[in-house]
Design brief:
Number of helices: 3
Radius of gyration: 19 Å
Distance between the termini: 19 Å
Strand content: 15-25%
Order of helices and strands: EEHEHEEEEEHEEE
Strand order of the largest sheet: 3-7-6-5
Structural class: alpha+beta
Length: 223
């Protein structure tokens, strides 16, 4: 039996196009821009959207902004908080030069930033006792590398709408980048990637099925 197939699928490491979803064990690239998440309280979500991220005073990986590509991990923060007080912010993160930290008491576990690295990366299931969940984690030293682009989870629709309105307002006040915000109008409706300064992506019809596609789409399968 023969099977006819038309379409494509591309795995991008983030070095070519912004806003890429990495697989759990996929190593970030130096120039990569990735979709990631940060779990916080409702009150802190308002502050982050309005003023941007601030560097933490410390933590397992030292100073920085703690984020993850694993939304389930972000959803568990803040620890010991009720679900009614948890928000997951969707981020666009420029990780820069990345140092892999994959064992307890790593010699650069808290000093990686002084060695020229922009981000510390703990891969999933690496066996670190400091990460009992075994889920992926990153620490970005410079808060300006982390941008809020949406609300991935909120306790209810009322809070979600409030935060989205605040994100839209902050984005407009800062020319599309303040508080880490990005206007929804700057996202291509087909490939879901941000456009450059609002310039629309090139769209065309698939030669096989006639469906509208964006040339930056990572995959397309003809129905």
């Amino acid at each position: 039996m023969s099977v006819e197939f038309s379409g494509w699928e591309v795995v991008d490491d983030g070095a070519s196009f912004p806003g890429v979803d990495l697989r759990p064990n996929q190593k970030p690239q130096k120039r990569g821009v990735y979709n990631m998440y940060h779990g916080t309280s409702v009150a802190n979500a308002r502050l982050i959207i309005t003023n941007g991220f601030k560097q933490s005073s410390g933590g397992m990986l030292g100073k920085g902004v703690y984020i993850s590509r694993d939304i389930s991990k972000a959803s568990s923060y803040p620890l010991r908080s009720a679900a009614t007080n948890r928000v997951v912010l969707q981020l666009r993160a420029r990780l820069g030069r990345v140092k892999r930290i994959d064992k307890d008491n790593h010699p650069l576990q808290k000093t990686w930033s002084s060695q020229g690295y922009d981000t510390a990366w703990v891969p999933p299931k690496c066996g670190m006792k400091a990460v009992p969940s075994g889920r992926e984690e990153d620490c970005v030293f410079d808060p300006k590398r982390v941008e809020v682009v949406g609300i991935a989870k909120a306790p209810n629709a009322t809070i979600e709408n409030e935060l989205l309105q605040l994100l839209s307002k902050t984005s407009k006040n800062h020319g599309g980048g303040g508080g880490g915000g990005a206007a929804a109008a700057d996202v291509c409706s087909l490939c879901k990637r941000r456009t450059q300064e609002g310039s629309p992506h090139i769209k065309q019809q698939c030669w096989k099925c006639g469906k509208n596609i964006c040339i930056l789409m990572s995959k397309h399968f003809c129905p």
